């Protein structure tokens, strides 16, 4: 059935100039009426503005990709932690309330960093989170805000994902991904020390955007979903795959996390088990697509 554009669902994307936001615009643009807002259009930490502006546009679906993602800064600087709590925690509640008021479906993203990382077999959607970093705590606050409104009949999908990579979003502040950082470093050195720990799955933002579309269209049950590409890797193993694909000669040296100290603790094993949806394609296929774009 072809739905005329005028009758297609109206989707509001928040954080549209970010990395995932950009891919959602690309994937959803042809089939839906999109309203794409970023920081300058709506500061999601302003409760009144969130209510007012969402009420004005009355979207059928709200997708929130806006987030505070500076994991180490948040750990070290108390003011940054407060900012992160507001953006990753309280603001999710503001949007959820606005979604309830206009009866929108609310889609929000969380992270593997809500888990402690002590379960080698991986974490299922129903497993109890125990973050070990302040950033993880703030993302869990957002999850709790959602769950609170779910008891009030909020229609929602909470998607946990990990290690995003893909084309950079339009915003200058959009976080550079791990592979871009490795490539940049490899321009000036012929040997890279890379952490060979922190086992989890990488996720191509284009694939995550497609999976989000599928979740909407297949009308899956509301709740928590784990979406990552298929296959588990350390940072070192993933970098090996990158340089193999690029056929670039470089010495990669595996190191322990302890030899690359960072302010925030990272989970050692944070594999997100997907027990509800069909598996995503393999990480290596997604990385090949990304490398072709570079
Ligand atoms: N990156 C990862 O590896 C990773 C891993 C697991 C989960 N996630 C989650 O996946 C989601 C998407 O992440 P991403 O990497 O695509 O994020 P991103 O590129 O950092 O984009 C975030 C966007 O949010 C906007 N924003 C910041 N503060 C805002 C505010 N107060 N009001 C409105 N917009 C604001 C930013 O705009 P400005 O730049 O203009 O401030 C930016 O465009 C997030 O929920 C993130 O926590 C990410």
Q: What can you see in these coordinates?
A:
Pfam families: RmlD_sub_bind (PF04321). There is one protein chain. It contains nine helices and ten strands. With 294 residues, the chain is an alpha/beta fold. It has a single domain, classed as 3-Layer(aba) Sandwich (Rossmann fold). Helix 1 links the parallel strand 1 and strand 2. Helix 2 packs parallel to helix 4 and helix 4 runs parallel beside helix 5. The protein starts with 9 loop residues before the first strand and ends with a helix. The structure holds NADP nicotinamide-adenine-dinucleotide phosphate. NADP nicotinamide-adenine-dinucleotide phosphate (NAP) binds next to helix 1 and strand 4.
Task: Summarize the SSE layout with pairings.
Elements: E1 10-14, H1 19-28, E2 33-37, H2 47-57, E3 61-64, H3 71-76, H4 78-102, E4 105-111, H5 134-150, E5 155-161, E6 164-165, H6 178-186, E7 191-195, E8 203-204, H7 205-217, E9 223-226, H8 235-246, E10 251-255, H9 283-293
Parallel strand pairs: 1-2, 1-3, 3-4, 4-5, 5-9, 6-8, 7-10
Helix pairs in contact: 1-7, 2-4, 4-5, 8-9
This protein binds NADP nicotinamide-adenine-dinucleotide phosphate (NAP).
NADP nicotinamide-adenine-dinucleotide phosphate binds next to helix 1 and strand 4.
Poorly predicted spans: none
Overall, the morphology is: globular
The hetero compounds bound to this protein are:
NADP nicotinamide-adenine-dinucleotide phosphate
CATH topology: Rossmann fold
The structural domain count equals: 1
Give, in spatial order, the strands making up the sheet with the most strands.
2-1-3-4-5-9
Q: Structural class from helices and strands?
A: alpha/beta
What share of residues are in beta strands?
15-25%
- How far the N terminus sits from the C terminus, by CA atoms, comes to 37 Å
The Rg value, from CA coordinates, equals: 19 Å
Major β-sheet profile: 6 strands, parallel
Counting DSSP E segments of at least 2 residues, the number of strands comes to: 10
CATH class: Alpha Beta
Helix content: 25-40%
Give the ordered list of helices and strands: EHEHEHHEHEEHEEHEHEH
CATH architecture assignment name: 3-Layer(aba) Sandwich
EC number: 1.1.1.133
GO biological process, one term: dTDP-rhamnose biosynthetic process
Keywords: NADP, Oxidoreductase
Domain RmlD-like substrate binding: 10-280
């Amino acid at each position: 059935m072809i739905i005329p554009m005028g009758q297609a669902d109206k989707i509001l994307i928040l954080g549209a100039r970010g990395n995932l936001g950009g891919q959602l615009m690309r994937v959803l643009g042809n089939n839906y009426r999109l309203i794409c807002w970023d920081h300058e259009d709506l500061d999601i930490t302003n409760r009144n503005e969130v209510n007012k502006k969402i009420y004005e546009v009355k979207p059928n679906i709200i997708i929130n990709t806006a987030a505070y993602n500076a994991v180490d800064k948040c750990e070290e600087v108390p003011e940054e932690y407060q900012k992160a709590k507001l953006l990753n925690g309280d603001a999710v509640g503001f949007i959820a309330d606005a979604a309830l008021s206009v009866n929108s479906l609310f889609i929000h993203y969380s992270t593997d960093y809500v888990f402690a990382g002590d379960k080698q077999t991986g974490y299922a959607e129903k497993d109890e989170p125990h973050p070990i970093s302040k950033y993880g705590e703030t993302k869990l606050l957002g999850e709790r805000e959602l769950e609170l409104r779910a008891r009030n009949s909020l229609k929602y999908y909470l998607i946990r994902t990990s290690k995003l990579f893909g084309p950079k979003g339009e915003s200058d502040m959009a976080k550079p991904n791990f592979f871009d950082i490795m490539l940049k470093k490899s321009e000036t050195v012929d040997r890279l020390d890379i952490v060979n720990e922190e086992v989890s799955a990488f996720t191509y933002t284009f694939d995550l955007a497609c999976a989000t579309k599928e979740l909407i269209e297949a009308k899956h049950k509301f709740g928590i979903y784990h979406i990552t590409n298929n296959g588990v890797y350390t940072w070192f193993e993933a970098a090996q795959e990158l340089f193999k694909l690029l056929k670039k000669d470089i010495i990669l040296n595996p190191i322990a996390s302890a030899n690359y100290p960072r302010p925030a603790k990272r989970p050692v094993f944070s594999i997100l088990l997907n027990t509800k949806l069909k598996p995503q394609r393999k990480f290596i296929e997604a990385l090949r697509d990304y490398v072709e774009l570079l």
